[in-house]
Amino acid sequence: MLRTFYRSLLRLHPRRFRERFAEEMLGIFDEIPTTKKRAALLCDGFSSMARQWVVRCEMWKFVLAVLIAIIQAVFFLHPY
């Protein structure tokens, strides 16, 4: 069950990343003996997917702009 979910998660990574690392990541997943450690690897796969989409698709520019806007709103435009 977890392996199927992990394979699906790997398919959600950007194509170039998936072509280069998916087999290796799945091989590492298969070597992990316990469900608890596999669940941790699943969380890592999810964070990897998020990072790859932000970095590879240049969404980081948008994310950075939003973070800067939030920081400015909180620290510089606060009425107190």
Task: Describe the protein in words.
It contains 4 helices and no strands. The chain has one domain. The model has no long low-confidence stretch (mean pLDDT 84). The chain is 81% helix and 0% strand. It is mostly helical and 80 residues long.
What's the helix and strand layout?
Elements (H helix, E strand, L loop, with lengths): L1 H10 L3 H17 L3 H22 L3 H16 L5
Helix pairs in contact: 1-2, 1-3
Question: How many structural units, i.e. domains?
Answer: 1
Task: Describe the oligomeric state of these chains in a short phrase.
Answer: single chain
As a percent range, the share of strand residues is: under 5%
Mean pLDDT: 84
* SS-derived structural category: mainly alpha
N-to-C series of helices and strands: HHHH
**Rg for CA atoms:** 17 Å
The helical percent reads over 70%
Give the tally of β-strands.
0
Largest sheet, strands/sense/barrel: none
Please count the helical segments.
4
**Distance between the first and last residues' Cα:** 53 Å
Q: What sort of overall outline do the alpha carbons produce when their principal axes are compared?
A: elongated
Task: Enumerate the spans where pLDDT stays under 50 for 5 or more consecutive residues.
Answer: none
